[in-house]
Amino acid sequence: MHSGLRLWLQFRWRMPLSLHMIESDVPLQNTDVLRQPIRLLIIDDDVVDRQIYLRFLRADDRNVYVITEAESAEAGYRLIRDEIFDCILLDYRLPEADGLAMYRIATGTQRGAVMAPVIMMTGQGNEAVAVAALKCGIADYLTKEGLTQEAMQRAISHAVDRSRLRRTLDEKNRHLADMNTELIARTSELERVYHSVSHELKTPLTAVREFVALVLDGVGGPAPSMGQRSFLEHALDGCDQMNHHLNDLIDSSRLDTGKLRLRLQPTQAGRVIEFALASIRTAARAKNLNLQSTIAADLPFVLADPLRLSQILGNLLGNAAKFTEAGGSIILTAGAPADRVDQVEFTISDNGCGIGPEHISQIFDRLFQVSSAGDELMGSGLGLGLSIARHLVNLHGGQLTVESTLGVGSVFRFRLPVVVAAQMVTAAA
Predict the structure, then answer these.
(1) Over the Cα atoms of the chain, what is R_g?
(2) What architecture (CATH level 2) is domain 265-428?
(3) What's the rounded Cα separation, in Å, for the pair 290 and 309?
(4) What residues have CB less than 8 Å from 317, skipping those under 6 apart?
(5) Could you tell me if 104 and 124 are in contact, meaning their C-beta atoms sit under 8 angstroms apart?
(6) pLDDT of residue 423
(7) What is the domain class of 10-147 according to CATH?
(8) Could you report the per-residue pLDDT of 358-372, keeping only the tens digit for each?
(9) Protein fold of 174-256
């Protein structure tokens, strides 16, 4: 629209209703950003008041109005039911109905949308009525006496802007709810696939492993030669790795869906540490890694799920072994930290390849791995170990942290609460 063009009131009568297309008699201040027309319903039996409203709106240099008039409550009801408006000017005193009573009845009847914001208009100011109007959901309350065009334009603009913003937010919330429903359905489907794959693969995998182990033990025939034994041991290791990856997939799925539950109990951390070290010793020996442990002599019981604690330590030790060059060192320590006597701190440190600062925030992400050169790595393993360890530590109420320097090594830490005497008594009972 050209900035110098003056737009005039156009209207047609529709008894007992009237529809007006009102654009400003004043040159628009900003024609490049023309606001969306405001669909306005005026319900007022006083023709003089309605003409005043039209004059005020015609002077608005910021908005365009599409105005429908109703001279009675009955006509207003029909319009609210059958049409959509952005705002409603409602007279408090109508011949057939009280404005508040009409609002309460009409609320929710606007087709396909929530009731448009209502501005209550009254001939005389009444604080009690104003409070009652605002309490029941009226957007604003204006008195006709002393009414100015600025006050009316401001009230309409604010009510419409708030309503449009609310509708936009509601639409986005509905969209997010739909997306969430779809995501839940897909996650559930993925979990079923994981479990199905696990069942279908683990059964034959277990059989393969057991038969390989029987051949290694010489059951059913002569013991294999040294060369054959080496092949069979590699096959056995492959079976164990596949079983480990399948378990990671299942655990990752159960963590995502919140179905993994801990069995917290007083746990002798020293025994769990010994088991975790034993599980990684073969891999460490294969790479000639120096595997050390420093465990406090008076290490107290911790409140933990022993199987999951072993899994956390195993994942962290396995990660350290994977990214530490042959001849390197891995150290596991457990003891009371200097600042908390009611906790036990577990630390797994290595002098491996380390992690660049650009990757520190990503290493706990599922499927993310980095190579010894510090680049993103695709291939070895599934990239689930650290993600699962972090989730399991979180379920224990702790936090898994990492400090690392590229080319120097990494240190992973987490803490668990010490079991108090009352918890020990309860567990024993």
Answers:
(1) 37
(2) 2-Layer Sandwich (3.30)
(3) 23
(4) 276, 277, 279, 280, 330, 332, 348
(5) no
(6) 58
(7) alpha beta
(8) 888 888 887 666 655
(9) Helix Hairpins (1.10.287)
